[in-house]
Amino acid sequence: MINIRTLDQLTITPGARVFYRVDYNVPLEGSRITDATRIEETLPTLRMLRERGAAIVLASHLGRPKGERKTKDSLEPVHAKLEELLGAPVQWMHDCIGIDTSHLQAGELMLLENLRFHPGEEQNDSSFAAELRKLADFYVNDAFGACHRAHASIDALPRLFEKDHAAGGLLLAKELEFLQKVTDVSDRPFVALLGGAKIAGKIEPLEALMKLADKVLVGGGMANTFLAARGVPMGGSLVDTDSLDVARRIMETHAGAELVLPVDLVVADSLDAPADIEEIDVAEGLVEDAKAFDIGSKTIAAFTAELKGAKTIFWNGPMGVFEKEEFAKGTMAMARAVAEADAISVVGGGESVEAVKASGFADRITHISTGGGASLEFIAGATLPGVEVLRS
Protein backbone atom coordinates (compact mmCIF):
# COMPACT_ATOMS: atom_id res chain seq x y z
CA MET A 1 0.00 0.00 0.00
CA ILE A 2 1.36 3.41 -0.99
CA ASN A 3 0.55 6.19 1.45
CA ILE A 4 1.29 9.74 0.36
CA ARG A 5 0.82 13.04 2.11
CA THR A 6 -2.60 14.36 1.09
CA LEU A 7 -4.24 17.73 0.73
CA ASP A 8 -6.10 17.48 4.04
CA GLN A 9 -2.74 17.32 5.82
CA LEU A 10 -1.69 20.77 4.62
CA THR A 11 -2.46 23.78 6.80
CA ILE A 12 -3.08 26.39 4.12
CA THR A 13 -3.79 29.85 5.48
CA PRO A 14 -5.88 32.29 3.41
CA GLY A 15 -3.72 33.96 0.78
CA ALA A 16 -0.98 31.32 0.89
CA ARG A 17 0.36 30.58 -2.59
CA VAL A 18 0.07 26.98 -3.81
CA PHE A 19 2.10 25.64 -6.72
CA TYR A 20 -0.39 23.23 -8.26
CA ARG A 21 1.28 20.79 -10.70
CA VAL A 22 -1.35 19.46 -13.08
CA ASP A 23 -1.28 17.38 -16.23
CA TYR A 24 -2.97 19.50 -18.87
CA ASN A 25 -1.25 17.63 -21.71
CA VAL A 26 -4.53 17.51 -23.59
CA PRO A 27 -5.11 16.48 -27.21
CA LEU A 28 -5.37 19.45 -29.59
CA GLU A 29 -6.55 19.99 -33.14
CA GLY A 30 -5.02 23.36 -33.86
CA SER A 31 -6.12 25.40 -30.87
CA ARG A 32 -9.21 23.26 -30.17
CA ILE A 33 -9.10 20.85 -27.23
CA THR A 34 -10.67 17.57 -28.35
CA ASP A 35 -10.81 15.98 -24.88
CA ALA A 36 -10.78 18.09 -21.72
CA THR A 37 -10.88 15.15 -19.28
CA ARG A 38 -7.54 16.00 -17.71
CA ILE A 39 -8.68 19.54 -16.98
CA GLU A 40 -12.07 18.44 -15.67
CA GLU A 41 -10.47 15.96 -13.27
CA THR A 42 -8.55 18.75 -11.50
CA LEU A 43 -11.65 20.83 -10.74
CA PRO A 44 -12.40 19.18 -7.35
CA THR A 45 -8.90 19.99 -6.07
CA LEU A 46 -9.07 23.51 -7.47
CA ARG A 47 -12.40 24.13 -5.75
CA MET A 48 -11.10 22.78 -2.45
CA LEU A 49 -7.99 24.98 -2.63
CA ARG A 50 -10.09 28.05 -3.39
CA GLU A 51 -12.47 27.25 -0.51
CA ARG A 52 -9.46 27.16 1.80
CA GLY A 53 -8.33 30.56 0.55
CA ALA A 54 -5.30 29.48 -1.47
CA ALA A 55 -3.81 31.65 -4.21
CA ILE A 56 -3.19 29.05 -6.91
CA VAL A 57 -0.31 28.93 -9.40
CA LEU A 58 -1.07 26.20 -11.96
CA ALA A 59 1.76 24.60 -13.93
CA SER A 60 1.79 21.90 -16.60
CA HIS A 61 3.60 20.57 -19.63
CA LEU A 62 2.10 20.08 -23.09
CA GLY A 63 3.56 18.11 -25.96
CA ARG A 64 7.27 17.61 -26.49
CA PRO A 65 8.83 21.00 -27.26
CA LYS A 66 12.23 19.75 -26.02
CA GLY A 67 13.21 22.92 -24.23
CA GLU A 68 12.15 25.29 -27.01
CA ARG A 69 9.26 27.74 -27.17
CA LYS A 70 6.82 26.43 -29.79
CA THR A 71 3.44 27.99 -30.52
CA LYS A 72 1.77 24.64 -31.13
CA ASP A 73 2.70 23.53 -27.61
CA SER A 74 1.49 26.64 -25.81
CA LEU A 75 -0.94 26.18 -22.94
CA GLU A 76 -2.92 29.24 -24.05
CA PRO A 77 -5.86 27.15 -25.39
CA VAL A 78 -5.94 25.40 -22.01
CA HIS A 79 -6.22 28.78 -20.30
CA ALA A 80 -9.48 29.58 -22.09
CA LYS A 81 -10.93 26.11 -21.42
CA LEU A 82 -9.97 26.23 -17.74
CA GLU A 83 -11.77 29.57 -17.27
CA GLU A 84 -14.83 28.12 -19.00
CA LEU A 85 -14.94 24.96 -16.88
CA LEU A 86 -14.10 26.60 -13.57
CA GLY A 87 -16.33 29.61 -14.14
CA ALA A 88 -13.69 31.94 -12.78
CA PRO A 89 -11.00 34.22 -14.23
CA VAL A 90 -7.50 32.78 -14.51
CA GLN A 91 -4.48 35.01 -15.02
CA TRP A 92 -2.33 33.93 -17.97
CA MET A 93 1.46 34.09 -17.87
CA HIS A 94 3.67 33.82 -20.96
CA ASP A 95 6.44 32.07 -19.02
CA CYS A 96 6.80 29.84 -15.97
CA ILE A 97 9.79 31.41 -14.22
CA GLY A 98 10.66 35.01 -13.37
CA ILE A 99 6.98 35.57 -12.55
CA ASP A 100 5.70 37.79 -9.76
CA THR A 101 3.06 35.90 -7.79
CA SER A 102 3.10 38.12 -4.70
CA HIS A 103 0.00 40.02 -5.81
CA LEU A 104 -2.22 36.92 -5.94
CA GLN A 105 -5.08 37.09 -3.46
CA ALA A 106 -7.00 34.29 -1.77
CA GLY A 107 -8.98 32.31 -4.34
CA GLU A 108 -7.22 33.82 -7.35
CA LEU A 109 -5.63 31.64 -10.03
CA MET A 110 -2.71 31.95 -12.40
CA LEU A 111 -1.73 29.55 -15.22
CA LEU A 112 1.92 29.43 -16.23
CA GLU A 113 3.19 28.71 -19.75
CA ASN A 114 4.47 25.25 -20.69
CA LEU A 115 7.13 24.02 -18.25
CA ARG A 116 8.86 22.10 -21.04
CA PHE A 117 9.69 25.31 -22.88
CA HIS A 118 12.68 25.25 -20.53
CA PRO A 119 15.20 22.35 -20.85
CA GLY A 120 15.60 22.35 -17.07
CA GLU A 121 12.18 20.76 -16.65
CA GLU A 122 12.97 17.44 -18.34
CA GLN A 123 16.55 17.53 -17.02
CA ASN A 124 15.23 17.63 -13.44
CA ASP A 125 17.51 20.62 -13.03
CA SER A 126 17.84 21.89 -9.46
CA SER A 127 18.37 25.51 -10.56
CA PHE A 128 15.16 25.46 -12.61
CA ALA A 129 13.34 23.88 -9.65
CA ALA A 130 14.68 26.65 -7.40
CA GLU A 131 13.17 29.26 -9.73
CA LEU A 132 9.80 27.52 -9.53
CA ARG A 133 10.10 27.31 -5.74
CA LYS A 134 10.07 31.13 -5.55
CA LEU A 135 6.50 31.17 -6.88
CA ALA A 136 4.70 29.53 -3.97
CA ASP A 137 4.53 28.56 -0.30
CA PHE A 138 2.99 25.09 -0.78
CA TYR A 139 3.21 22.33 -3.40
CA VAL A 140 0.36 20.10 -4.57
CA ASN A 141 0.67 17.49 -7.31
CA ASP A 142 -2.24 16.08 -9.32
CA ALA A 143 -0.22 15.32 -12.46
CA PHE A 144 -0.43 11.54 -12.20
CA GLY A 145 0.17 11.23 -15.95
CA ALA A 146 3.65 12.69 -15.43
CA CYS A 147 4.52 11.03 -12.11
CA HIS A 148 6.64 8.37 -13.81
CA ARG A 149 8.97 11.14 -15.06
CA ALA A 150 11.78 12.44 -12.85
CA HIS A 151 11.29 16.00 -14.06
CA ALA A 152 11.97 19.20 -12.13
CA SER A 153 8.37 20.10 -11.29
CA ILE A 154 7.62 16.47 -10.35
CA ASP A 155 10.74 15.44 -8.43
CA ALA A 156 13.27 18.20 -7.66
CA LEU A 157 10.72 20.90 -6.80
CA PRO A 158 8.71 19.15 -4.05
CA ARG A 159 12.01 18.31 -2.30
CA LEU A 160 12.54 22.05 -1.83
CA PHE A 161 9.41 22.34 0.32
CA GLU A 162 9.09 21.23 3.94
CA LYS A 163 7.26 17.88 4.07
CA ASP A 164 4.20 19.45 5.68
CA HIS A 165 4.04 21.89 2.77
CA ALA A 166 3.94 19.32 -0.08
CA ALA A 167 1.21 16.79 -0.84
CA GLY A 168 -0.81 15.00 -3.48
CA GLY A 169 -4.12 16.42 -4.64
CA LEU A 170 -7.51 14.72 -4.76
CA LEU A 171 -6.89 13.35 -8.25
CA LEU A 172 -3.53 11.80 -7.43
CA ALA A 173 -5.00 10.16 -4.33
CA LYS A 174 -7.89 8.77 -6.40
CA GLU A 175 -5.55 7.39 -9.06
CA LEU A 176 -3.47 5.54 -6.47
CA GLU A 177 -6.57 4.23 -4.68
CA PHE A 178 -8.03 2.58 -7.76
CA LEU A 179 -4.80 1.35 -9.32
CA GLN A 180 -3.96 -0.32 -6.02
CA LYS A 181 -7.27 -2.17 -6.28
CA VAL A 182 -5.73 -3.73 -9.40
CA THR A 183 -2.29 -4.51 -7.99
CA ASP A 184 -3.69 -5.68 -4.63
CA VAL A 185 -6.67 -7.41 -6.20
CA SER A 186 -9.06 -9.11 -3.78
CA ASP A 187 -12.21 -9.31 -5.90
CA ARG A 188 -11.87 -12.14 -8.41
CA PRO A 189 -12.04 -13.21 -11.19
CA PHE A 190 -9.64 -10.48 -12.31
CA VAL A 191 -9.68 -10.02 -16.10
CA ALA A 192 -7.18 -7.77 -17.88
CA LEU A 193 -7.98 -6.51 -21.38
CA LEU A 194 -4.98 -5.29 -23.36
CA GLY A 195 -4.74 -3.85 -26.86
CA GLY A 196 -3.00 -1.13 -28.80
CA ALA A 197 -0.41 -1.28 -31.51
CA LYS A 198 2.65 -2.92 -29.98
CA ILE A 199 3.96 -5.07 -27.16
CA ALA A 200 7.06 -2.86 -26.89
CA GLY A 201 6.57 -0.49 -23.96
CA LYS A 202 4.05 -2.83 -22.35
CA ILE A 203 6.24 -5.85 -21.67
CA GLU A 204 6.68 -5.29 -17.91
CA PRO A 205 2.99 -4.41 -17.32
CA LEU A 206 1.95 -7.42 -19.39
CA GLU A 207 4.20 -9.75 -17.43
CA ALA A 208 2.93 -8.26 -14.16
CA LEU A 209 -0.69 -8.75 -15.24
CA MET A 210 0.05 -12.36 -16.21
CA LYS A 211 0.93 -12.89 -12.54
CA LEU A 212 -1.87 -10.78 -11.07
CA ALA A 213 -4.87 -11.61 -13.24
CA ASP A 214 -6.88 -14.76 -13.79
CA LYS A 215 -7.22 -14.10 -17.52
CA VAL A 216 -5.52 -11.67 -19.90
CA LEU A 217 -7.46 -10.93 -23.08
CA VAL A 218 -5.32 -9.50 -25.88
CA GLY A 219 -6.52 -7.68 -29.01
CA GLY A 220 -5.31 -5.02 -31.42
CA GLY A 221 -1.85 -4.95 -32.93
CA MET A 222 -0.54 -6.58 -29.75
CA ALA A 223 -2.58 -9.69 -30.58
CA ASN A 224 -1.14 -9.71 -34.11
CA THR A 225 2.33 -10.11 -32.64
CA PHE A 226 1.27 -12.99 -30.39
CA LEU A 227 -0.48 -14.72 -33.27
CA ALA A 228 2.56 -14.27 -35.51
CA ALA A 229 4.76 -15.68 -32.74
CA ARG A 230 2.44 -18.68 -32.64
CA GLY A 231 3.03 -19.22 -36.36
CA VAL A 232 -0.19 -17.73 -37.76
CA PRO A 233 0.36 -16.03 -41.16
CA MET A 234 -0.57 -12.38 -40.54
CA GLY A 235 -0.37 -11.06 -44.11
CA GLY A 236 0.39 -7.34 -44.15
CA SER A 237 -0.85 -6.74 -40.59
CA LEU A 238 1.04 -4.63 -38.09
CA VAL A 239 3.36 -6.99 -36.24
CA ASP A 240 5.94 -5.89 -33.68
CA THR A 241 8.72 -8.10 -35.06
CA ASP A 242 11.17 -6.95 -32.39
CA SER A 243 8.90 -8.44 -29.72
CA LEU A 244 8.24 -11.87 -31.24
CA ASP A 245 10.67 -13.61 -28.87
CA VAL A 246 9.05 -11.84 -25.91
CA ALA A 247 5.63 -13.00 -27.06
CA ARG A 248 6.86 -16.60 -27.37
CA ARG A 249 8.40 -16.46 -23.91
CA ILE A 250 5.19 -15.14 -22.35
CA MET A 251 3.11 -17.83 -24.05
CA GLU A 252 5.54 -20.58 -23.02
CA THR A 253 5.90 -19.43 -19.40
CA HIS A 254 2.22 -19.84 -18.47
CA ALA A 255 2.78 -17.61 -15.44
CA GLY A 256 -0.49 -17.40 -13.56
CA ALA A 257 -3.12 -16.04 -15.91
CA GLU A 258 -4.59 -17.67 -18.96
CA LEU A 259 -3.68 -15.72 -22.10
CA VAL A 260 -6.68 -15.42 -24.43
CA LEU A 261 -6.06 -14.40 -28.05
CA PRO A 262 -8.52 -13.60 -30.87
CA VAL A 263 -10.05 -16.51 -32.78
CA ASP A 264 -11.14 -14.30 -35.67
CA LEU A 265 -10.15 -10.94 -37.10
CA VAL A 266 -11.67 -8.20 -39.25
CA VAL A 267 -9.37 -7.75 -42.25
CA ALA A 268 -9.11 -5.53 -45.31
CA ASP A 269 -6.49 -4.60 -47.89
CA SER A 270 -6.27 -1.08 -46.46
CA LEU A 271 -7.88 1.26 -43.95
CA ASP A 272 -9.52 3.12 -46.82
CA ALA A 273 -11.08 0.10 -48.53
CA PRO A 274 -14.26 -0.71 -46.57
CA ALA A 275 -15.72 -2.64 -49.51
CA ASP A 276 -13.04 -5.30 -49.03
CA ILE A 277 -13.73 -5.93 -45.34
CA GLU A 278 -14.23 -9.52 -44.23
CA GLU A 279 -13.91 -11.66 -41.11
CA ILE A 280 -11.24 -14.35 -41.14
CA ASP A 281 -10.79 -17.21 -38.68
CA VAL A 282 -7.33 -17.09 -37.19
CA ALA A 283 -6.89 -20.78 -37.97
CA GLU A 284 -7.00 -19.94 -41.70
CA GLY A 285 -4.31 -17.25 -41.45
CA LEU A 286 -4.21 -14.07 -43.54
CA VAL A 287 -3.23 -13.90 -47.18
CA GLU A 288 -0.32 -11.67 -48.24
CA ASP A 289 -2.16 -8.36 -48.73
CA ALA A 290 -4.72 -8.75 -45.93
CA LYS A 291 -4.33 -6.61 -42.82
CA ALA A 292 -6.08 -7.13 -39.48
CA PHE A 293 -7.80 -3.97 -38.21
CA ASP A 294 -10.17 -5.28 -35.52
CA ILE A 295 -11.21 -8.37 -33.60
CA GLY A 296 -13.98 -10.45 -35.16
CA SER A 297 -17.50 -11.28 -33.92
CA LYS A 298 -16.54 -14.64 -32.37
CA THR A 299 -13.76 -12.97 -30.41
CA ILE A 300 -16.10 -10.18 -29.33
CA ALA A 301 -18.52 -12.80 -27.97
CA ALA A 302 -15.75 -14.69 -26.19
CA PHE A 303 -14.17 -11.59 -24.64
CA THR A 304 -17.59 -10.24 -23.61
CA ALA A 305 -18.37 -13.51 -21.80
CA GLU A 306 -15.09 -13.33 -19.89
CA LEU A 307 -15.70 -9.70 -18.88
CA LYS A 308 -19.29 -10.42 -17.85
CA GLY A 309 -18.09 -12.82 -15.16
CA ALA A 310 -15.26 -10.61 -13.90
CA LYS A 311 -15.18 -8.84 -10.53
CA THR A 312 -12.10 -6.72 -11.29
CA ILE A 313 -11.21 -5.40 -14.76
CA PHE A 314 -8.20 -3.47 -16.02
CA TRP A 315 -8.29 -2.24 -19.62
CA ASN A 316 -5.55 -0.57 -21.61
CA GLY A 317 -5.51 -0.26 -25.40
CA PRO A 318 -8.11 -0.51 -28.18
CA MET A 319 -8.99 -3.72 -30.03
CA GLY A 320 -8.44 -2.19 -33.44
CA VAL A 321 -8.33 1.02 -35.44
CA PHE A 322 -11.40 2.37 -33.64
CA GLU A 323 -10.99 5.84 -35.16
CA LYS A 324 -12.41 4.30 -38.36
CA GLU A 325 -16.08 3.41 -37.99
CA GLU A 326 -15.63 0.23 -40.02
CA PHE A 327 -13.07 -1.07 -37.52
CA ALA A 328 -14.53 0.25 -34.27
CA LYS A 329 -16.96 -2.59 -33.50
CA GLY A 330 -14.57 -4.59 -31.33
CA THR A 331 -13.42 -1.66 -29.21
CA MET A 332 -16.95 -0.30 -28.76
CA ALA A 333 -18.20 -3.76 -27.78
CA MET A 334 -15.47 -4.03 -25.16
CA ALA A 335 -16.40 -0.61 -23.77
CA ARG A 336 -19.99 -1.80 -23.38
CA ALA A 337 -18.91 -5.10 -21.83
CA VAL A 338 -16.61 -3.40 -19.30
CA ALA A 339 -19.33 -0.87 -18.43
CA GLU A 340 -22.00 -3.53 -17.95
CA ALA A 341 -19.85 -5.87 -15.87
CA ASP A 342 -20.61 -6.11 -12.15
CA ALA A 343 -16.99 -5.33 -11.38
CA ILE A 344 -14.47 -2.72 -10.27
CA SER A 345 -13.37 -1.44 -13.67
CA VAL A 346 -10.24 0.63 -14.26
CA VAL A 347 -9.36 2.02 -17.69
CA GLY A 348 -5.65 2.76 -17.92
CA GLY A 349 -5.43 6.00 -19.84
CA GLY A 350 -4.30 6.65 -23.41
CA GLU A 351 -6.43 5.63 -26.38
CA SER A 352 -8.63 3.52 -24.10
CA VAL A 353 -10.01 6.73 -22.60
CA GLU A 354 -10.82 8.09 -26.07
CA ALA A 355 -12.57 4.84 -26.89
CA VAL A 356 -14.63 4.82 -23.70
CA LYS A 357 -15.61 8.45 -24.24
CA ALA A 358 -16.61 7.72 -27.83
CA SER A 359 -18.67 4.71 -26.72
CA GLY A 360 -20.87 6.75 -24.39
CA PHE A 361 -20.22 4.43 -21.45
CA ALA A 362 -17.61 6.51 -19.61
CA ASP A 363 -19.94 7.29 -16.71
CA ARG A 364 -20.32 3.56 -16.01
CA ILE A 365 -16.62 2.86 -15.60
CA THR A 366 -15.42 2.81 -11.98
CA HIS A 367 -12.24 4.76 -12.70
CA ILE A 368 -10.74 6.23 -15.87
CA SER A 369 -7.07 6.99 -15.32
CA THR A 370 -5.58 10.24 -16.60
CA GLY A 371 -2.17 8.60 -17.07
CA GLY A 372 -1.58 5.95 -19.71
CA GLY A 373 2.16 5.40 -19.29
CA ALA A 374 2.07 6.10 -15.56
CA SER A 375 -0.76 3.63 -14.95
CA LEU A 376 1.08 0.89 -16.84
CA GLU A 377 4.31 1.53 -14.95
CA PHE A 378 2.39 1.44 -11.67
CA ILE A 379 0.85 -1.90 -12.62
CA ALA A 380 4.32 -3.17 -13.50
CA GLY A 381 5.54 -2.27 -10.03
CA ALA A 382 7.86 0.51 -11.16
CA THR A 383 8.83 3.35 -8.83
CA LEU A 384 7.06 6.57 -9.77
CA PRO A 385 9.26 9.55 -8.78
CA GLY A 386 6.31 11.91 -8.38
CA VAL A 387 4.66 9.51 -5.94
CA GLU A 388 7.77 8.50 -4.02
CA VAL A 389 8.68 12.10 -3.18
CA LEU A 390 5.27 12.54 -1.49
CA ARG A 391 5.31 9.39 0.60
CA SER A 392 4.07 10.04 4.14
Please, could you describe this protein's structure?
With 392 residues, the protein is α/β, with parallel strands linked by helices. It folds into 2 domains: 7-170, Rossmann fold (3-Layer(aba) Sandwich), CATH 3.40.50; 177-379, Phosphoglycerate kinase, N-terminal domain (Rossmann fold, 3-Layer(aba) Sandwich), CATH 3.40.50.1260. Helices cover 33% and strands 16% of the residues. It has 15 helices and 17 strands. The strands form 4 sheets. The protein has a 6-stranded parallel beta sheet with strand order 5-6-4-1-7-8. The chain has a 6-stranded parallel beta sheet with strand order 11-10-9-15-16-17, sandwiched between helices. α12 crosses α13 (351-359). It starts with 16 loop residues before the first strand and ends with a helix.
Topology of this protein?
Blueprint: E1 17-21, E2 28-29, E3 32-33, H1 37-40, H2 43-51, E4 55-59, H3 76-86, E5 91-92, E6 109-111, H4 119-122, H5 126-133, E7 138-141, H6 152-156, E8 166-168, H7 170-183, E9 190-194, H8 203-212, E10 215-218, H9 220-229, H10 244-253, E11 258-260, E12 264-268, E13 278-281, E14 291-295, H11 297-308, E15 312-316, H12 329-340, E16 344-347, H13 351-359, E17 367-368, H14 372-379, H15 385-388
Parallel strand pairs: 1-4, 1-7, 4-6, 5-6, 7-8, 9-10, 9-15, 10-11, 15-16, 16-17
Antiparallel strand pairs: 2-3, 12-13, 12-14
